[in-house]
Amino acid sequence: MTTAPDFELGAFSDVGPWSVDPGAMPWLEQVGHLRAEVRREIPRALARPRVPPVGRLLRIVGSIGAVLLRWYLRDRRSARSRAALSEGLRRAFERLGSTFIKLGQIISGGEGLFPEELVAQFRLLRDRVAPETFDDVRAVIEADLGRPLSAVFAHFEETPLAAASIAQVHAARLHSGEEVVVKVQRPRVAALVREDITTLSWLAPFFVGRIPVAALANPPALVELFAETILEELDFRLEASNMLDIAAVLARTDQRAIIVPRPHPTLVTRRVMVMERLSGFSFDDVEGMRAAGIDTAALLRAGLISFLEGALLYGVFHGDLHGGNLFVLPDGRTALLDFGITGRLDDSQRLAFLRLLLGGAGGDVRSQLEALRDLGAFPPDTDIDAVIEDLELEGPVKDPTKMSADELTSELRDLTKKLLGYGARAPKQLMLFVKNMVFLDGATVTLAPDLDILAEIMHVFMYFQEHHGARLAAELGLDPEHRFEIDMGSVRGAMGIADEIDTLTYADVKARRDLIAQRMQGRKRRQSA
Fold it and tell me: What is the pLDDT of residues 449-484, one digit of tens each?
């Protein structure tokens, strides 16, 4: 049983270095105003200027243009056409600095929206960022806290624990003895981000239809997603507030298997955040966790349920789940880190997400499309009947493993063309949600490779029915006694597997994906021969 005095306020560690008291956190008073200001800034930042920042424009066009020209002249018709272009774009983003590294990181979470070659290349941007000098770090801390570094910290590690596109983190110890982590924003990143958003807003329309790896997130939509995501990340007071909000949701749903570090009561500013230091197993250290007696399958299930509860019940969820943003404590609880990207849904969006998932569980195609429209994935006036007919969504789902590479390529090309014709796009909250689901799906291969995915889907559905069914039914205007039903035949169909399949492990899924990949590679080799 936890004994922390702030136990009721949030899912925190048992004994913290301090206790969370919102009334004693002066930075928290400004959060509502700061969020509103970010919302107002987004359309201003995205407004296409008549004349962009010329110097930055030339550098961006020069870097990306050189990659596209080299691809067009040398690699366009080769077997590794998309791989070569993806690698070239990743290297160009590295050269362009923090803003483009962050943009690449966002793209790296778009598996299913972007080609796998591009996603794989841009994943490399997550941990290939050079740190700032200690002198720059010191200057930011002293400017924001208004005191010399030595007046705040008894010890401060000059070498960062990690360096990312927006900030880096250092280990430190306060004079009062608490071991802490200090997150420090890169000194010039805010100005660079705003300049780059302006430049990209001017430039993006020229790339529509000209980049073969753009997928559904066309360049203007991608810039919009980027601006919505990154502008809030530039103020650590908002991130600290996100930490408290998600910790509160975990406490309300009694998901004590997930915890959040406590932000410091007073040492939080726009560019500096001091927080509780936690330690444990890295998320991919399965051998270490199992040696410690940790049930990794239970850990994965708790993560999935808590993520869904946050989104569907309270409209708040961690928006950037990946292995570097969480680790596992020796007692088996998972600690979440880095709350700069946090999904926030208003009530209409939250209920649309709920209808989307229930539509999928029940095989209701119309309900799913209407929910996607309400989330902004389609224009408000989209003719849902026309989409259903045009995309042949009411017929049997085609099994991709039963299709040839040419058939699959044609199917995907046709689907993408039709979706773009309907104005389909990837709104921020939907992309964050899907990105997290993709991460949790991938985590299964290391944490629970023998998990029966079909049985787990049923378990999660029944958990929500038992614990939240009455509330969700009332919110959807149904009788509180209404029992939601799951159609496993529709679930199998959505996954492209036959009705007679009763179990599906990650090994089975991997075998199916490998078969499809082999066929596609064979097609590429035939084309280049």
Answer: 888 888 888 999 999 999 999 999 999 999 988 999
| pLDDT on residue 182 | 98
Residue 298: inside a domain, yes or no? no
CB crowding 177-200: b at 16 or more within 10 Å, else e:
ebebbbbbbbeebbebbbbbbbbb
Quote the domain boundaries for residue 410: 347-528
Q: Which of 182, 215, 233 is the last residue of a domain?
A: 233
- Burial (CB < 10 A; 0-12, 13-18, 19+), residue 105, is buried
Structural domains counted in the chain? 2
Q: What is the mean pLDDT of residues 321-326?
A: 86
Residues in contact with 302: Cβ distance below 8 Å, sequence separation at least 6, in sequence order? 255, 257, 258, 334
Q: Tell me the pLDDT tens digit for each residue of 483-518.
A: 998 988 888 877 777 777 888 887 777 777 677 667
Active site residue 6: no
Q: Within this chain, do residues 224 and 351 fall inside the same structural domain, yes or no?
A: no
The answer to the question of residue 274 being in a domain is no
Per residue in 186-243, pLDDT tens? 999 999 999 999 999 998 888 766 555 444 456 787 788 889 889 999 999 999 999 9
Query: Helix 428-447 to helix 347-362 angle, to the nearest 10 degrees?
Result: 50
Tell me, yes or no, whether 100 and 228 share the same domain.
yes
CB 221 within 8 A of CB 314: no
Question: Which is more confidently placed, 137 or 519?
Answer: 137
Two tokens, residue 282:
């890295």
Q: Within this chain, do residues 80 and 227 fall inside the same structural domain, yes or no?
A: yes
Which of 320, 331, 414, 479 does the annotation list as catalytic? 320
Say if residues 232 and 226 touch (Cβ distance below 8 Å): no
Q: Which two tokens stand for residue 262?
A: 């406590």
Domain boundary among 199, 233, 267: 233
Question: Does residue 214 fall inside a structural domain?
Answer: yes
Residue 149 lies in a domain: no
Whole-model pTM: value is 0.88
